[in-house]
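A quick aside before the break. I want you to see a complete sequence-to-structure record at least once, exactly as it would be stored in a machine-readable document. Don't worry about memorizing anything.
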Amino acid sequence: MLIFLDVETTGLEKSDKICSIGIIAVGENELVSKYELVNEGKKISPKASSINHITNEMIKDKKAFKESDAWKFLQEHNNENSTIVAHNVNFDIKMLLVSGFIWHGRVIDTLRVTKHLIPECEYFSLQFLRYELKLYQNEKKEALKYSLLAQNSEFIAHNAFSDALHVKLLYEYLREMKKHDELVKLSLTHVLIEKFDFGKYSGRYIEEISMCDRGYLEWMLLNIADLDEDLRYSVNRYLSA
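That is the input. The structure line, written in tokens, reads:
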């Protein structure tokens, strides 16, 4: 079972929880789509609402995640024969864990795989890739397979179901380049990042900065707790070269 998944959260702090989940699942003879708002007892911050357009009023009377159909579906397919596919999958798996759900199947991270296979991309956000790789050309046709999304005419960024659909389209794009098992392997392999895409050295080569401002890289490693794990890996590689 392939489970294309996206979650939206009440915020990005450690105490924040899932507030919506979108699933598109494809089995041998099964096609499943689910979108649910859930209430994990944590208020949605105004900043989070400005991104995912979900308000506290919208989840006020919703069930907890453990009582949702999405939880039951994931639990039913929680085995090594199933693969969760998500963009930055570690975040989604972590948020499932925060709600008490431990995933035992395989994972594919379309974010990391894209960095491996299409490193020339300027950015790697799902919405950027939607247009850079022209995934939008197939989204309407794909949406017709899923009655939930077919009721809507728009594909909204940071809507869990819409994002799950684009993850599926991105996965299929990547599958033209590598087999499924190779995508699983790449998802577990660090990416060596060449350039910074943020901060005062944005656009500069990390290797160059390791020679002219080594202290800055060492400061990053010590002081940025949530530093992207591939960037942390890359900085360490360049510092030890």
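Two observations worth writing down. Residues 52 and 158 are 5 Å apart (CA to CA). The first strand starts at residue 2 and ends at 9. We'll return to this after the break.
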